Amino acid sequence: EVEIDVEGTFCFSFFLYKTFFLFLFLSEEHSTIIERALVTNRAEVEIDVEGEKYDLNLLEMTQCHSSSSIKIRPILRVGPPLAQQVLVINDNEETSVVLHIDQSFPKYWTLPCKSVSKVPLNFKTSSLGKEIGRMMNSTIFKAGHGGLGTLCGKDPKGFELTSIHIIQNPTMWSNYMYQKGKVMSSFNSKKNDEFRYYMADHPFATPSIDNTCNEVYLFHGNKDSAIEMMCNDGFGISFRNAVISGFGGLYFAENSSTANMYAACSFCNSDQCSCSDKYQEEAEFSLLLCRVILGNVYTDTKFSHSEYDRRTKSPTTGMGYHSIMGIPPAPHLPRELIVTNHSSVYPEFLIRYKRKAEPQVIELSKKTVLGINHSSSSSEEEKEVHEDHEEPQEEGVGLE
Going by fewer Cβ within 10 Å, which terminus of the chain is more open, N or C? Predict the structure, then answer.
């Protein structure tokens, strides 16, 4: 529901996605134009109301009459549309049916959230921070990674966190949730039979979020410059580069140590660090903990990177699959997930850490926050999660 002030005369509302006649001047066409612009990350859109043209700024959430740049008034999206509504969008050549879902921000985000921000999270005292620290250290692949992502030539046994930031990007979040609705609309249980049976005995090491579309938390490692771009603009450019380079899509891992293989050293900016032992011990690295919508998953039990580097037709092209789970035939190799739509990824946590030769002990709170198995919080617990960002900064515990 959006409220728009038309020339200051009165205020009215229109409802998104409704198929019945919309009262006053706004039509269903206006509704579709505005919402489509919002979910596809357009900064501005123009609408014509009874011959009067209005420019809407969807980043600043303001509107002004096209004939006057002075009369600027706010517009308000009054909460997300109701869950389970269906939006039909005509795009000249195609019609898509999208199951629309609640786009509310996670409870642990800091509100109001109107622009891109990195909110520091106290990883030593907060429940959420401890949970991420435990995830970083409990998902290390025991068999190692063949000499990649090492510390002084050896596989690290632990990761010491130096900071965690929550990436709050409202435009990217809206686009991600819109994509989730699209995936849910085309979700096919039969296509997921093999994946479901396999996962019953081999569950992910990271938390699941929503089983209705196989949404899960996964790690991604990259150079700092690429990670900064992903936090601000998403994975679109990385996906394009992956396709140009001949890869099958965007790669993610349930094991922090697998993503660590691709993380770049803070000193030499290389994912194959050749610094001296002294510098390697002090070097910091970055990982993203992402929400990933896997949707219909093609389960490949004979996975090899070379197959997807050269494959002319991926299962995600014309076969109704949204992602690929690669299971190498050799048990000493970790599973990897390949996603072929960059909108199916939301980079939610930026994690900075050091590689350690010894395992790291993380004290875990009884209360968990991430995933579908989290305990229901009382009002006091919800307040505690939200106040994790408000720790006194002069103490310097887990904050930059």
Answer: C
